[in-house]
């Protein structure tokens, strides 16, 4: 995969961030590409020249993007909504379920997975990870109680980089009658996800990381069965239908019905610019191919591990191949991190742990630069 370097170097050339940095911080937020900047400029130009007139083009394009996003996760278009971030999505979900539903989630997960549920009065149980951050399926299963009705986890854990086997977890939840909510913010765009094959009930993801779509856009899948059984409680003017939707006249708008598909989660006027830029990012990713992206990143991860062994740097993300992700951690000293900063290498460093985020615009030379700086 890495041998076909021309393809990947052309992609890399679309990201000017590498003119300044060796960039390994995608886990925190990705740079955007030159094509995305060009798209943003074109959209703003159209808005400045046409005003409201852009809607004849923008509205149908938003629905095309919804269909594209649905296809990428093997969902029906009616099951997909746009979100601005995963915290917003989780807030929309919280009110759908009785507070008697016990939540099982991961202690090492991002607070979005448990803070809203605790605040809303749910009993929340936290699964403790192993010392290296691994969370085996057996450990999750042992923590399930008769009251557990919802399991929430990130496909890829943001801190450790541990990648869950979604198919195995989905089978467990189906067997135990548990609703499965997955946050794919740290995997969407670089790992293939099939919501049907994995028995995922709800999938949420923010696209400013691995999809490199910029801030303010994301997606949420909610199965039709779940929509029908647990309709959302939060309503706005936009996610309901009226008998006579004519806002130019005064009439009784107190009569309404919630929409009957995933757009019921879109309460107000959509963030059109963000969604249209997301569409550009999705076209870019699909042109490369997620399967190719995954294989390419896994090859770079393998190379990272080889170089770490060669340079006697401890790899903290020492998981089996099926649990490896684009997030890798190395143990280094504060002095070594200062050397990285002086060498123009951008990555997260906390508690003697260097977190490396590898995306489709990185290459072996970036990894060589990293270890050269560490020496």
UniProtKB/TrEMBL annotation:
<dbReference type="InterPro" id="IPR015422">
    <property type="entry name" value="PyrdxlP-dep_Trfase_small"/>
</dbReference>
<dbReference type="Pfam" id="PF00266">
    <property type="entry name" value="Aminotran_5"/>
</dbReference>
<protein>
    <submittedName>
        <fullName>Aminotransferase class V-fold PLP-dependent enzyme</fullName>
    </submittedName>
</protein>
<dbReference type="InterPro" id="IPR000192">
    <property type="entry name" value="Aminotrans_V_dom"/>
</dbReference>
<dbReference type="InterPro" id="IPR015424">
    <property type="entry name" value="PyrdxlP-dep_Trfase"/>
</dbReference>
<keyword id="KW-0032">Aminotransferase</keyword>
<feature type="domain" description="Aminotransferase class V">
    <location>
        <begin position="23"/>
        <end position="311"/>
    </location>
</feature>
<keyword id="KW-0808">Transferase</keyword>
<keyword id="KW-0663">Pyridoxal phosphate</keyword>
<dbReference type="GO" id="GO:0008483">
    <property type="term" value="F:transaminase activity"/>
</dbReference>
<dbReference type="InterPro" id="IPR015421">
    <property type="entry name" value="PyrdxlP-dep_Trfase_major"/>
</dbReference>
């Amino acid at each position: 995969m890495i041998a076909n370097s021309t393809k990947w170097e052309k992609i890399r050339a679309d990201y000017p961030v590498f003119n300044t940095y060796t960039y390994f911080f995608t886990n925190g937020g990705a740079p955007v590409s030159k094509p995305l900047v060009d798209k943003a400029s074109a959209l703003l130009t159209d808005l400045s020249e046409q005003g409201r007139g852009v809607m004849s083009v923008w509205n149908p394009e938003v629905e095309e993007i919804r269909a594209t996003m649905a296809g990428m996760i093997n969902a029906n278009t009616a099951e997909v909504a746009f979100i601005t971030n995963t915290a917003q999505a989780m807030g929309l979900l919280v009110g759908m379920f009785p507070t008697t539903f016990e939540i099982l989630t991961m202690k090492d997960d991002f607070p979005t997975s448990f803070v809203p549920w605790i605040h809303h009065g749910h009993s929340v149980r936290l699964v403790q990870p192993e010392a290296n951050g691994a969370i085996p399926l057996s450990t999750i299963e042992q923590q399930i109680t008769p009251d557990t009705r919802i399991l929430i986890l990130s496909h890829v854990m943001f801190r450790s980089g541990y990648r869950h086997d979604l198919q195995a977890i989905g089978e467990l939840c189906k067997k135990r009658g548990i609703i499965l909510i997955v946050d794919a913010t740290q995997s969407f765009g670089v790992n293939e996800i099939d919501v049907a094959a994995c028995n995922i009930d709800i999938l949420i993801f923010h696209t400013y990381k691995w999809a490199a779509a910029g801030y303010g856009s994301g997606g949420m899948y909610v199965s039709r069965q779940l929509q029908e059984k647990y309709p959302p409680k939060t309503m706005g003017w936009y996610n309901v239908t009226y008998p006579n939707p004519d806002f130019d006249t005064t009439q009784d708008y107190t009569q309404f019905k919630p929409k009957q598909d995933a757009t019921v989660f879109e309460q107000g006027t959509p963030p059109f610019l963000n969604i249209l830029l997301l569409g550009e990012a999705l076209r870019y990713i699909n042109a490369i191919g997620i399967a190719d992206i995954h294989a390419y990143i896994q090859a770079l991860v393998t190379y990272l591990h080889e170089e770490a062994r060669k340079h006697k740097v401890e790899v903290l993300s020492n998981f089996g191949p099926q649990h490896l992700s684009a997030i890798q951690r190395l143990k280094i000293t504060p002095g070594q991190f200062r050397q990285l900063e002086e060498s123009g290498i951008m990555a997260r460093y906390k508690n003697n742990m260097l977190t490396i985020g590898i995306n489709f615009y990185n290459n072996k030379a970036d990894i060589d630069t990293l270890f050269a700086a560490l020496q």
